[in-house]
Here is the input.
Amino acid sequence: MENNLAENIRSCRKSLGLTQEQLAERLGVTLGAVSKWERGSSEPELSYIMGLAELFHISVDALIGYTMRGANADEEAERIEALCDRINAAEPAERVPIETIAGEYESALKKFPNHFRIVCGAAFLFQQIGVVYRRDAALKKALELFRHAISLLSQNRDHPEINEVILRNEIAACYSSLKSYGKAIEEYKKNNAAGTNNARIGCLYTLFEKKPEEGIRFTERAFFSHISDMVTTMAGYMSYYIATARYDQGIRAAAWTIRFLQSLKEDPDRHAFIDKIVSLFYLSLALLQDGRGLPEASDVSLRTAVRTAAAFDADPVFTSENMLLLSSIENTSFYDDSGPSAADGLRSSLEDLSAFVSDAFRKKLEQEIEAAKQHGSE
Here is the structure.
């Protein structure tokens, strides 16, 4: 019976970024021994095979490369993943009970306890069982498996979307489902790069730890971050709709964005930093309406964009003043990359979209800006 031991040793060593010499040092053998193993001119003794399997975080049989009962670890993982796809199959006869799949994963884990796809797949399945059916034992099993999956990440070739950040957040989610909220917060905080877990941390502090003042600090940061991301996302949509001449969709999206941003002001009659951003979306709306062949509506939107910008520049606000839900970060300074003034922002945005802007539209913008200046000086 053939095996792939030599090839697997070489492949696993390289996946860990080790040289032959480094591997030899870790195992306490000579460089020549490792070289012979990888060439296939000799095979390691059983104790070294077990040591290699432990170092590489794979099972002994997977390292050797023998098949078991007609299926290797990858094939076993694929078979069970296919069963998972049938949990909610449209046809009742095609559905596979989740408990059946759990049993399949239990058997697979006994055969291949250090195979990433099997360990990670089992972790997600047991987490689902624990959350849906409120089974603490399943959640604790999922915790154990998620931790083990992190140690096996070097094997992950098929699911690049699964990384350490994702797995550590799932660990925190398991703790939350187990009502160990302090541990959940601790895990989320450890894994909170760029504030990605602020919303979860804020909710847990306020709702379950009964620390609302601590929670609101994280909640407001999350809210502000999401608003910033939403503005960037909708700006991307505007560029797409203008570039692809999808004017009707763009007009609806621009109008919705404007309404949403305006709703973020505590007092609609007072200025806020958001007015500068709103003026840019009015400009996008005007461009879309112009492309759609709606000149009168476009003129109104362009005039509104310029007047909104002019009003902001006359009384600029660069904090969260008059911003809904952001009262406790009022002293934070805001800025954006459109330009030092709102009027500069309109010109800059038009330049960014120059390939889709007519000379007539550019002229109209300058005329409106000039008219707003004259009106302001009167």
